[in-house]
Amino acid sequence: MMGFGSGMGAGWILVLVLWIALIVLITWAVTTLLHASGNEGEKRGSADAAAEVLDRRLAAGEISSEEYQRVRDQLAASRGESRQPSTPGRSTALVVVIVVALLALLGTVAWATFTPGGPGGMMNGSWSIGDTRMMNDADTRGGGPGTDGGPMRGGGPMTGDDFGVAGTGPVTTLAEARTAAERYADPLDLRVAEVMQFDNGFYAELSTPGGDGATEVLIDADDGDVRIEYGPAMMWNTEYGVHTPEGTRPAEISPERAQSLADEWLAAHDGDVSAGHPEAFPGYYTLHTEEAGTVTGMLSVNASTGAVWYHAWHGEFVDMG
Fold this sequence. Notes:
Elements: H1 10-59, H2 65-82, H3 90-114, E1 164-165, H4 174-185, E2 191-198, E3 201-207, E4 213-219, E5 226-228, H5 232-235, H6 255-269, E6 274-281, E7 284-291, E8 294-302, E9 308-310, E10 317-320
Antiparallel strand pairs: 1-5, 2-3, 2-10, 3-4, 4-5, 6-7, 7-8, 8-9
């Protein structure tokens, strides 16, 4: 099965292109430098061989001493010219190119590997709300993320610190993740419903006291921080999202249609995966993705436009409860 969570975003693609360009540049510079050094060595070797032949001919009496001296002078002049670089500074410039390119290559590799805000963005566990790379994982069919009708405006029921609460320490179990999510949900008079564990952290659904879906959150396994989930929960949620559309359009897509759209999207990307039961949230549906009855991940369908957004930031599914 294709792992959606391991798909590359635009940031990774750009970094890979940069790495390839640097490797090509380094290869060219090294090849050119070695070729230039080899040519100079060949010239010196040719002059030495000619001198040996000249000595043998003189010893055999094939040429006069005057002819011998004249040719020796020419060979000496040729050696002197071969010791001078044909293009002053060329070798130095090539060495500089190699060093700079190597430093750039190693630097970007280290950055991509160790920096939480690297090109992997949400894929490496950095769940910063300000990370706009979440838009890279969207399928823009039917309007795309953030285009679910009407202009966007700031505000909405949740602003500022309402989008997250600081953790109290590492979270390693579903029970600990539920407790962390409750610290976020209780002040909003919400309840924690489903909790899931992925290899990039924990996820929880929050519902109203009446049992209706409210929003979705992420729990950072390293420190227990709780944040509104990337993607649909931020951009499509008409009650708890970052932006609430003015004149919010009512849901036009039924749960059955949402599941059908999800299945069509999954069939186009991986025929072995199907969509589970739609969970309704304000402005969109979220559905598990399943293979042979086993949960593999999740995606969302916009309730107004039918746009599909796969939750690629979770990584591989681990457990739920």
